[in-house]
Prior knowledge:
The chain contains five helices and six strands; from the N terminus they run E-E-E-E-E-H-H-E-H-H-H. By secondary structure, the protein is an alpha+beta fold. It has two domains: 11-44, no CATH class; 46-154. The strands form two sheets. Strands 1-2-3 form a three-stranded antiparallel sheet, with no helix packed on it. The chain has a three-stranded mixed sheet with strand order 5-4-6. Strand 4 and strand 5 (58-60) form a beta hairpin. Helix 1 (63-74) crosses helix 4 and helix 2 packs antiparallel against helix 3 (105-119). The longest helix is centred in the C-terminal third of the chain and has 31 residues, at 137-167. The radius of gyration is 22 Å and the shape is globular.
Amino acid sequence: MRCPMCGFADTHVIDSRETDDGIAIRRRRRCPHCNGRFTTYERVEVGLLMVVKKDGRREPFSRDKLSRNTLKALEKRPVPQHHVEAFLQGIEQKLFDLGKPEVSSQEIGQLVLEGLKELDPVAYVRFASVYMGLSDLKSLQQVIDQLMNQQKEQKAADTAPAEARSLGTGFSRT
């Protein structure tokens, strides 16, 4: 593997281990020429998945493109890198689990939106504004309002059982 810092053609593997999900191998490498260290990930390529665009064009699925677009939405957000990596791996796994040779770009966008809603609401709004083609503030405000209402409902659902438990029944088992 070529060193990304100096371009030397022969680097050495210092350490190899599986990632937490067991789907990739993480390798730490060192360049004997410049002593630079870097990490690579090795993944199994499971067939070719084609993405069908809105205009009908087909192109091979690109994890790099998925990563790039997701990272734009997450830029300067306080989300740990390992959460981002797990998120991207989850999206990729869901796409391959569909078992279809082709998947629409809309399906991919929906998976990303659903995941970002949980991962980081601000990134969700950023991604949604581009993905949904929101062209004015009113449309953006509707998306934000919808997200806030869902968060309120979720918070109410999460606290309701705790409140019910704290009220108790007045009976004790002895």
